[in-house]
Each structure stands twice: as C-alpha cells, then as structure tokens.
C-alpha cells in the first residue's frame, strides 16, 4: 500500500481530531450525517453523478437551521485546517530542500544572479542594485480577511505544534502530548465564535497591523537580510553595506479615509502616536539586550573619544539611548491617554542619530573584536532601524479628490472670488499655482466650513503637527486632473505643513488611466511643481476600480499602457518615477505571484523602486510566521532585481495592435452586461451574498462609498468577494472570451502563442485567467439561480453561465501554450481535493439564503450566523476573498 505523503497524513490527522471534537460537542448522530454528506459530495463530484448531487441537495434541504449551522462550521473548519497544513508543508519542503535555508526561493535568486553575470551585468551592478533598492510594502486594512484574530492566533499555535511534531527526537510521550495539545486547540476553535460581532475601529485595525510587525516581521527582517547577505556574498565576494535596507514598511491603517467616515484626524494622530510608542518599546528592548550582551572593555579611538576613559565603553555609550527610548515611550503613552508629561530627557526624533551611533558601535567592534561579534551584537538592530525607522510604519494619508476641491471652492466663495468648482482646468491651475507661490496666507481665519470640509482641513493640520518620519505619502484617489494634485499641495501650505508630504495621484478608472500620462506631463510642465517635486514623483495605479470599471483584460492593458506613458513622461522631464501598485489578493484586483507581476510590467518602470499594497488575507498569508515572512521578503527582492537588470522585452507593434483591439472588444462585452442590462443589479443582489458581506464586520470601512446607489457605488472588494462566493468569478473573466474568440477567428492563434511565450505581460495575464477559470463552477452558479433568482433574471444567469463555458473553451485553446509548471499542477490538484467540501458549503450557503429571503426567515439568529460562516468557509476553499 502506497505511503501517504506527510501533508496528507497531517490533513488526515487534523481532520480526525476535528471529527472527535464534533462527536464530543455535537454528538455521534450529527457526525454520521456529516460523514454521509461528505461522501455524497465526493461521489457527486468524482463521477459527475447527478443522482448523488440531487440526493445531496435534498438532504441539505431537510436539515434544521441548527444542523445547517453546524455543518457549515464543520466543513469550514476542516478547510482552514487543511490550508494550515498546506502552508506548513510548503515551508517545510523548502527547508528540507537544503537544510537551514528557505531554498526554494533562494534557488531562484541563486539562478538569477549567475544569469545576470553571464549576460554582462557586473558584480558591482548587482550589489548596488540590491543595496539601493527602495521597496515599500504598504499594509492596508482593506476588508478581505474574514478570519477573526483569535482564530489566526490559534492557527499560529497549531502551526508551531506541527513544526514541533517533525522533531524526530521527541519521545513517544512527547509526541502524544503534541497531538493532545493540537486537539485542545481544535476543540477551542470549535467552541469559539468565528463571527465578528462588532466592527473593528480604524485604531484597532492599526493595532492589528502593528501586531503583525511585532509577532513576525520584526524578527524576520534581520534574518531575511542575513540570508540575502549570504547569497550576495557567495556570488560577488562581498556583503551588502550595513546601511542597505531594500525593503521598508508603510501603512494605510488609520490614514485611509477615502469613503470611510470612521477615519478622522483624531484617528490619524492616535495611530501615529501608537506607531511611535511601539517603536520606542521595541528599540528600548533591543538596546537593553545589546547592553547586556556587549561587555567588552576595548574599543576604537572613535568610540573612546566620545565616552572617555570608562571601563565598559559600549554600555556607557548605549545607556543614554536606552533611557531616551524609555522616555519617548512614556511621553507617547501620556499623549495617547490625553495626559501631560514633561520629558526629562530629549526624545528620540531622528533615526539617523540612532543609526550613526549604532554604526560607531559596529565599526568599533569590528576593529577590536571581529566582525562576527559585531554582526551578532549590533547589525540586527541596524537592519531593523534602517527598515522601520522610529515609527515602525510610516502612515500614508488617502482622501478622494473632490473632498479637496470642495475646500478650495468654499474658500473662493467665501473670498468672493467665484466658484472654484465651476472654473475650467486652466483657470484652476493658474489660481492654485499663483497661491502656491504667494507668501501671504489664503485661508481666512473667519471662514466657517461644513463638517466634511472642516475634517479635511483638520486632517492637514494634523499632518503639520507630526514628526517628519511619521508620515509617508498623501494619496489622492479618483485623481482626474493636474489641479487635483496642486490642490493638496496648496492645502498643505495653508495648514502649515513645513515639509509637505509627497503627493501621489491615484489613477483608477479606465479613462483616468488613459489620461494619466497627459496629466503628469502637464504637472511636470509647471515650473513651480517641478521644483517642488525635487526630481521625484510617486504615482499610484489602481487595479481594483479599473477592473470593476472595464473588466480584467481591458483594465490590465490600460494599467500597462498607463505605466509606459508615465515612464516616458518622467524620463522626458528628468523625474525619477516610483509606481505604487494598488494590488489586491484576487485576480480581479491585480493579485498573483509577485515575480510574475513585476516581470509583466513595462520595461524600465521598476528600476529598483516600487511600492505595493499588502491587503487583507494577503497579509496573513505572507507574514503569518517568520519563515513565511522571510520567504516573501526575499521574493520581492528577487523579483525587483530581475525586473530591473533583466528587463522584460518591449512588446512588438503587432502585439500592441492586437491588445488594443481585444481590449476594446473585452471592455464593450463587459460593460454590455454590467452596465447595459437593466436587471443586472437585481440579479447580482439576489444570487450572491453581497448583502451579507456588509454584516461581516471584517473592516472599519463601509462596503459602499455611499449608502444609496447600485454597482457603481459598491467597492471593488465586496464586488469581487460576492462573485467569488458563488464560484462565478465574473469580474476576472467577463469580456475575455469575446476578445479571444475574435482574435482566433482573425487567424491570430500563432501570434497569441508567440505573445504567451515571449511577452511576460501576456503570459501573466493568461496565467491568472487560467487560474480563475479552474476555480469557477457553472454547476454551482446554476444552483444559486435555481433557488434564489426570480424568473425575470434567470435568463441573465443562463447567459452568464453560457459565457463562462465559452470563455473556458476559448481560453483553453490559448493557454495550451502556457508552460507546464509545478504550481499549475499543484493548484489543480488542490482544487480537485477541495471541490467536494466547497460544493457542500455552496449548497449550504444557498439553502441558508433561500430560507432567509424566500421563506421569510430573515432575523433568525441561527440562520444568519450560518450564512456568515459559509462566507468564511467558501473563502477558505477558494483561498481568497476580494
């Protein structure tokens, strides 16, 4: 008999422990029903057995509400445990590949560096590129993580026990204890509420972001740099300079107020203080450890000149920094509590002061005691300080463009200058630039703003009060004109911001992406603006809203051409451009493997610099453990190195021509359905759990920008989340089939194959669409139509499922050219195993929704909890949400 793989053994073990818990907590009779349903679902899926499928649905129809809820919880918890085991063995396999290293990705890096050297890149270029990288990962509170924090914490504990289980030195008694401890955690999970009962505040979201840093990333950064150093040295003979910090972190949690009335200027101030408190606490502990560790009495002349003739120079040198971090922590704590506190020592306010001191220590230890001791004692702190600064996470501020123009309009009307909103773009620019150059204030002292305008002004005044290191960029969502950027600069001037935040326009819709190059060209052509930019510009590319606006294919091409245009305009004006990618976890929002995503960008647009959002469930997936965090940080460095020094090819004119044509066809087909069908919104709301998503309490931000309105007012995350739940995945493929069909009918099959083989952009696009198509299921989508849709919208459901089948068939003809990859095979195998569990959860969700809305059981707490739990379960089955 063939031995099961370690992964399958662990999944079986976790499943058995969950089964034991269910028998104990709910009873044998229920467990027998559960097993019957599981086996029916497997039979229905394995043999496409319609009789078994019907029996399964009928059985579910006959369950009580309480049984529905327990079934949902059982299947959802099993899938979460299976995900946990898969993630654990993914990292375990990498460690086993080459003992002591995260080698699966290190192997990629160790392949890329010799390739670069063979292609003429020098060792110095490689070292300088890695050392000079500016990669900023921006943590956001976008609500796509459906698991409660307490669940995530228990999952982390189980992961640790799975790690320990692999220790072959454990005695039988210790092994038994290990399994028992896992069993206790699984029982605790079953007895815990998986549903958030209270929506988190923005401040709580920000604390969660800091917790990720404290729990894993704080320790992962120096280890990641150690491993990166080892690789660079093995190929170049040199280590990275101690000042190198290729990756830094920022956050939107507590700064992103676009459509979130819960984020106020008070929130932003509190989060900045909390960030600073956390940094002071962590650095105080690290400096204290260094003081305890470094007892050497000999030091360099440089250090001796500072401390004088003392017995333990390093301890004397570092103690004032320890004291000042403690004092900064006390002062910040008082500020958070609204109390007054007079510092007895200078607060820590300049990271360079701290870094200079650490480098003095490091140089002295290298000179007197050797590099190994110097690195072990001080280098880890240098790496952390270079990465995190004095605030751990620099906070971005984001606001929608019209909120700023509303303030300017209120000012011009108060001063009887006319209505700013009614001026044309040229007049707006002329006014804004004149006022930016003016030395007199514009903001009247006696002006009375409405509440919304006052909040914008108070936010900018709050920015003015923060230390320079506390804040990052000011991002303007829905940027549509040069005046949108100038308006924010003017508000910063008028509110007393001494060193203005860099202003990053966010181009989101198809039209805005297409106009982005022209807008930035206009800005760079303004002498005042070009001088104020100091030769650098950040521009954010919106993946979510562009996809919602135009569909996956058209949006992807618009994002690509926008980046090309922005790169060309920046080079024309001698501006160093940093592109900020607003990518989500799902394909419809720009998700996918980072190495593929970066190599699919236009050549020259990465150039060692990038910002990217890390959102929702992506944060948990990438930074749940130190091993996983190291792996993902190395992955970013590798991808940026490759995209910078092994630039992707420039697309051929005939490729562009075909993409232009397919983009128009795809966009028209997408909008014909989403905008052109009168009953589309009704269909969407009836067959998807869109209404329930707003009650999940998975984030502080409302699901809609406005309380009224249809699809246009719905945020991109719940838009994609809802379609993912019913396995239709509509935003990620709608319109693609029509575009590919026309291309094939025009005899472009060979050209499409060439584009897949030779153009990373098109490869990545089709690879992601292929992944989505594997996760879709027209049978499941049909089930939702049958039991939830009114007769007048069922025809639309049939049309969408027909389009899905046609897209699947057409795309298969094109993706036949995709190379067979280990990941592709693994994905299909994983989905095949999950389908019976996912199918059952979908049937359970549909039945819950039917009872709520067709049998008027809305308000039944058991049923409402059940449908909420199905959302989390299906998200676990799909391995992503929005």
UniProtKB/TrEMBL annotation:
The gene is ppc. Pfam families: PEPcase. Its EC number is 4.1.1.31. This is Phosphoenolpyruvate carboxylase. Keywords: Carbon dioxide fixation, Lyase, Magnesium, Pyruvate. It catalyses: oxaloacetate + phosphate = phosphoenolpyruvate + hydrogencarbonate. Belongs to the PEPCase type 1 family. Forms oxaloacetate, a four-carbon dicarboxylic acid source for the tricarboxylic acid cycle. It comes from Lentisphaera araneosa HTCC2155. Its cofactor is Mg(2+). It is an enzyme of class 4 (lyase). Homotetramer.
